[in-house]
Write a structure and sequence with these properties.
421 residues; mainly beta; eleven-stranded parallel beta sheet; elongated
Length: 421
């Protein structure tokens, strides 16, 4: 999945400013009372929490009434609160229909909490998505110290978008959010990415479930771009695209205890599209499983790009009937054959460790190292690799092209094709 362009990011910010005019004003044939609502106060340890319940602001939660304006009114008050930890409450037992929303910061408090216990429902037709160019359903921009927690479910109702060439709408988008925590949510059937992280730092995502059908296009679980110090752990992701995609200008990404499948695996990239310079560094993926996926541990770059992907580790990985358990694809085209022209530059892939891989491969090529002739893959290290065929009647093997590295232990399948470094 490709990351958002700078123009799209600018559109997101502009949309946050004019959102009430473009997306909600006169969107429904009724008005909300303008009385000042006294928020609830609670004490949590030494902190005084002010609770801003969307129901108190007029949200119905009946699954059909448009609750967008009530959600924004509650957010505006929560974001303006300066004492204690403002708590934005979406109560359990209700289903809230929402048009696209931008929760705009910065907020006055250094910390803000969202308790998402109820369910959110996206528009079920395209006309209800019109009027906002943010290309996302729920967006948070410039909100620091944000903690989203709860068992609420977000249903993106993406099936009608999957049949359209305009499937550009993400379920949840975070832009320039520092110190972000997301825990316990479930996202279903996003039109495109379930969660996008863009220009964020110090992010922790845990115990989330991101689910879409195997044939749903571009429904990445978590898409990371231009971000650093990102931790993703203890999650279940099964979609029609990458479970996690790590795009350019991203570093210090840690992924642990993630169950992936169906989907396209955990991917570094794609990088270097249309000649772009992209860099990714210091990625650690450990204790993850891939079940029935098109790929396992994948690095993908376009020909003609530049930059590098370096210091990447995949370790303690289990695969079950996964195609391409280990793959480096430096001729990635995503079906766009016009990128086949002769290139003079490429993204450098180096310092990649594969350690303790085990399981079954659904493809004949269990290890596929298809590296660039211009800048061959360098310093690939393999240790304790045991990949066997999913069927006892088949065999698996390795493929290497322009790949330099070494094996600390014998591998299965054999890596005799690897150029020793």
């Amino acid at each position: 999945m490709e990351h958002r362009s700078m123009g799209a990011s600018l559109a997101l910010v502009i949309c946050g400013v004019v959102l009430n005019v473009l997306c909600y004003r006169n969107a429904v044939g009724r008005t909300f009372p303008m009385d000042i609502i006294a928020p609830t106060m609670s004490i949590n340890g030494s902190d005084i929490n002010t609770i801003f319940n969307v129901v108190d602001y007029g949200a119905h939660g009946d699954g059909t009434t448009d609750d967008s304006q009530a959600f924004m009114k509650a957010w505006n008050d929560a974001c303006e609160a300066s004492e204690g930890i403002p708590t934005y409450m979406v109560p359990a037992g209700k289903r809230f229909f929402l048009r696209p929303l931008v929760f705009q910061g910065p907020c006055k408090s250094s910390r803000i909490q969202i308790q998402l216990l109820g369910d959110l429902i996206a528009p079920s037709n395209k006309k209800d998505w019109k009027g906002c160019n943010a290309n996302s359903w729920i967006s948070f921009s410039d909100v620091n110290g944000l903690n989203i927690v709860g068992s609420g479910q977000l249903d993106g109702l993406g099936s009608f978008w999957w049949r359209s060439s305009q499937s550009l709408l993400e379920a949840i988008h975070f832009h320039k959010c520092q110190v972000l925590r997301v825990n316990g949510l479930k996202s279903l059937n996003s039109p495109r990415n379930h969660i996008s992280i863009n220009e964020c730092e110090n992010v922790d995502i845990s115990h989330v479930q991101l689910i879409a059908p195997e044939d749903s296009p571009n429904t990445d679980g978590i898409d990371i771009s231009e971000s650093s110090n990102i931790n993703v752990h203890d999650c279940i992701i099964g979609t029609g695209d990458d479970c996690v995609a790590i795009n350019g200008r991203s570093s210090y990404i840690n992924i642990a205890r993630l169950a992936c499948g169906p989907g396209h695996g955990i991917s570094v990239g794609s990088l270097g599209k249309e000649g772009a310079r992209d860099v990714v560094a210091n990625v650690n993926v450990q204790n993850c499983s891939f079940t029935g996926t098109d790929n396992g541990a994948r690095i993908k770059t376009w020909e003609g790009g530049s930059g590098y992907a370096t210091n990447i580790t995949f370790e303690d990985i289990t695969v079950h009937e996964a195609k391409n358990p280990i793959i480096i694809d430096q001729r990635y085209r995503n079906g766009q054959d016009h990128f086949l022209s002769k290139s003079e530059t490429a993204v450098q892939v180096s310092n990649v460790i594969y350690r303790r891989f085990r399981g079954t491969s659904a493809s004949e090529i269990a290890i596929n190292l298809d590296c660039s002739e211009i800048v061959p893959c360098q310093n690939l290290l393999f240790d304790n690799i045991n990949l066997v065929p999913a069927s006892s009647r088949e065999e698996v093997k390795a493929y290497c092209k322009n790949a330099e590295g070494r094996m600390l232990t014998p591998t299965e399948p054999s890596l005799d094709c690897l150029n020793r470094s």
